[in-house]
């Protein structure tokens, strides 16, 4: 019997929601340009503004804060290009590509360690820095980062340091809270996100401007998006983003991700019972409800991904941010203190509300079968 493939790589990209597909199909024949003042243009503008309001409702912010982009990578470039930025090793490549990471550290639990600005040695980490970035969660390990500590640090520095947070992995999966404060009142200046991380289409995302810090436009021309991002808006993609955000908000409110966390825990229990030498990254730290990152030292992540793919399961060896390349050793895991062998042996399983227990257990059975076969060859 041929088993239907199971997609277990939700942190790379999620399946398109039916609501998003329907919204996009409903506007593909819309001929108006959102910047035009005639009836057709106004209709296109209404679609983009409806989506902006839907996304703002999920974010808990003013719709005017949302600037549509082609994704979180472009949003990161808008916020960080030509800036003296600092980031942590757990951040996405689109952030670290613009930032200085030397001097920032992760603990063994995978959480960012804030420098002690009262120490002359650690204070130098922030010399000449004019913006600091920290992801809300690591897409690779699922570990929730202490953004509230970064905000406190930024406030204590004189002058106050602007901040950016990548919320792509947490948006639509958990409440956007930093400490006890929601996103809009947290003191965060900027946030970035992508639609395809929450069931929307690829190729659309947002820069969220929450404070007075307003980065200069990266794309200039017609002055769309209130002058922040020129270029005709991707109306169909934006409509899909909005519909996905509305559906995601309902899921969070209805506790759908609590069931996902239960499935993740079942998976880890099953694997650990069969492979006691398996290492789970950040298991004792707060994590995304859907993510498990684990390693068996010496069994490379690349090999595991290929074997699972042949077995009918899509999983990942790290974040999907390097054009399909599988890196030999994860910089995130190296920064957590794991050795090169362990860091190159990790894979990530990430699931979602449509993932079934049968799929998770079938993956576990397949992985365990390969694990035992590997052990027999080594004996």
Shape: globular
Main sheet specs: 7 strands, mixed
What would you call the quaternary organization? single chain
How many beta-strand runs? Answer: 16
Low-confidence stretches: none
Structural features, described:
With 379 residues, the protein is an alpha/beta fold. It has two domains: 6-15 and 256-378, Aspartate Aminotransferase, domain 1; 18-252, Aspartate Aminotransferase, domain 2, CATH 3.40.640. It contains twelve helices and 16 strands. Strands 2-12-11-8-7-3-4 form a seven-stranded mixed beta sheet, with helices on both faces. Strand 9 (177-178) and strand 10 form a beta hairpin. Helix 1 packs antiparallel against helix 7 (235-253), helix 2 (39-59) runs parallel beside helix 7 and helix 8 runs parallel beside helix 12. The longest helix is centred in the last third of the chain and has 22 residues, at 357-378. The two termini are 31 Å apart. The mean pLDDT is 92.
């Amino acid at each position: 019997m041929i088993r239907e493939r199971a997609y277990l790589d939700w942190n790379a990209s999620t399946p398109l929601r039916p609501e998003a597909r329907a919204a996009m199909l409903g506007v593909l024949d819309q001929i108006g340009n959102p910047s035009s003042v005639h009836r057709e243009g106004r209709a296109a503008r209404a679609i983009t503004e409806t989506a902006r309001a839907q996304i703002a409702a999920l974010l808990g912010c003013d719709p005017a804060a949302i600037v549509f982009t082609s994704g979180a990578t472009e949003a990161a470039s808008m916020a960080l290009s030509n800036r003296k930025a600092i980031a942590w090793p757990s951040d996405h490549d689109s952030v670290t590509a613009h930032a200085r990471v030397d001097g920032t550290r992760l603990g063994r639990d995978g959480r960012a360690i804030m420098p002690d600005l009262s120490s002359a040695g650690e204070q130098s980490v922030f010399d000449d820095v004019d913006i600091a970035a920290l992801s809300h969660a690591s897409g690779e390990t699922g570990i929730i980062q202490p953004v509230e500590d970064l905000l406190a640090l930024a406030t204590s520095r004189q002058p106050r340091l602007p901040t950016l947070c990548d919320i792509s992995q947490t948006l639509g999966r958990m409440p956007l809270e930093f400490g006890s404060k929601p996103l809009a009142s947290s003191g965060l200046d900027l946030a970035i996100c992508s639609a395809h991380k929450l069931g929307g289409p690829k190729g659309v995302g947002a820069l969220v401007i929450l404070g007075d810090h307003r980065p200069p436009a990266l794309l200039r021309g017609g002055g769309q998006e209130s002058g922040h991002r020129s270029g005709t808006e991707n109306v169909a993609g934006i409509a899909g983003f909005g519909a996905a955000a509305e559906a995601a908000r309902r899921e969070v409110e209805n506790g759908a991700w609590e069931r996902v966390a239960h499935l993740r825990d079942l998976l880890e229990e099953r694997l650990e019972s069969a492979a006691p030498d398996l290492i789970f990254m950040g298991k004792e730290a707060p994590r995304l409800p859907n993510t498990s990152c684990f390693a068996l030292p010496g069994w490379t992540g690349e090999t595991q991904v290929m074997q699972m793919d042949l077995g009918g399961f899509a999983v990942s060896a790290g974040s999907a941010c390097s054009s399909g390349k599988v890196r030999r050793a994860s910089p995130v895991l190296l920064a957590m203190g794991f050795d090169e062998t362990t860091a190159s042996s990790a894979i990530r399983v990430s699931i979602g509300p449509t993932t079934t227990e049968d799929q998770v257990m079938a993956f576990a059975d397949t992985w365990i079968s390969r694990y035992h076969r590997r052990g027999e060859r080594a004996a």
